[in-house]
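Researcher: Checking consistency across runs. Here is tRNA-specific 2-thiouridylase MnmA again:
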Amino acid sequence: MRVVVGLSGGVDSAVAALLALRAGHEVHAVFMRNWVEEDGSCSAGDDLVAAAAVADRLGIDLDVVDLSREYRAQVFAPFLAGYAAGRTPNPDVLCNREIKFGRFLAHARRLGAERVVTGHYARIGPGPSLLRGLDGDKDQSYFLHLLTREQLAAALFPLGGMYKAAVRRLAREAGLPNHDRPDSTGICFIGERDFAGFLGRYLAPRPGPMVTPEGTVVGEHRGLHFYTIGQRQRLGIGGRRGAGGAPWYVAAKRPQDNALVVVQGADHPLLLASALSTGPAHWIAGEPPRLPARLAVQIRHRAPAVPARVREADGGRLEIAFERPVRAAAPGQAAVLYAGETCLGGAEIEAVQTVAAARRAAGA
């Protein structure tokens, strides 16, 4: 079978290509250039050099496809718009749907490929369905929850049944030149950066007050888009008389008056969510399971999936009530739903009911 592997320069995609070759596939490699700076420079130079070295070692052809225009329009622009609106979007989710399994898949088919191969830690089950990767620390099904069955049917995830340590060992044994290259982190295809500094190049500062839930002003923020719910670092709130020594955290953003609400203590009731509501859900199977149902819901990559009662509301939206509170849920994040190891789909969080709000409602 002819397959195209997305070779990124990292060890995961390199081993995915190796395993595709060992499975007897005809393998062609493509490096996606998805981010170009506004001055025309490309920050992916080292990645391309690493990808070329891997392709040479494996004896496969490597092409480069420039998808930077599509990435800016379909991933980066919505990402900026979400932050500007006070939300917490996840660009990796859109990147997988629109770029890796959208534009890249279309490019691979033009090259005559039957499947695309990636280094994702996820598995494809019957249906096809999306299953968690065997390595729980590396599982990436959360980022893939917007895929369709058609996209899954065109994909191969050779690393889904492996642990990262085994991937590194296999790369070393095979003599892959990037076997010890550090894992990439940061924004999808943009990389690891000073996030606030990077965001500040596109969104202007809009200072406002940092306030306690009681309305006391304790500092000034640079702009709501520079902060995330649950953030502790870089708040600039010093010791305050009568406040005690507990650390401060971002608990809420109030765009209506440009206020950033901060609280003390990691388990403050305003940081804990008992329920949330979402926008219209995407279901990988094309239709929802029988609802209401008890499902596991994950609100961040590597956050634990928490049992919850999920019911459908108007317009395909979801109402989710957790069996135990979750920390730092924020509008814009993805709430991804699981039945056992199977990822069913997910939806964008629209509103959060905190434990504090639930207590007030119960006492009303």
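Researcher: Does this match what you'd expect to see?
Model: One thing to look at in this run: The chain has three domains: 2-173, 205-264, 272-363.
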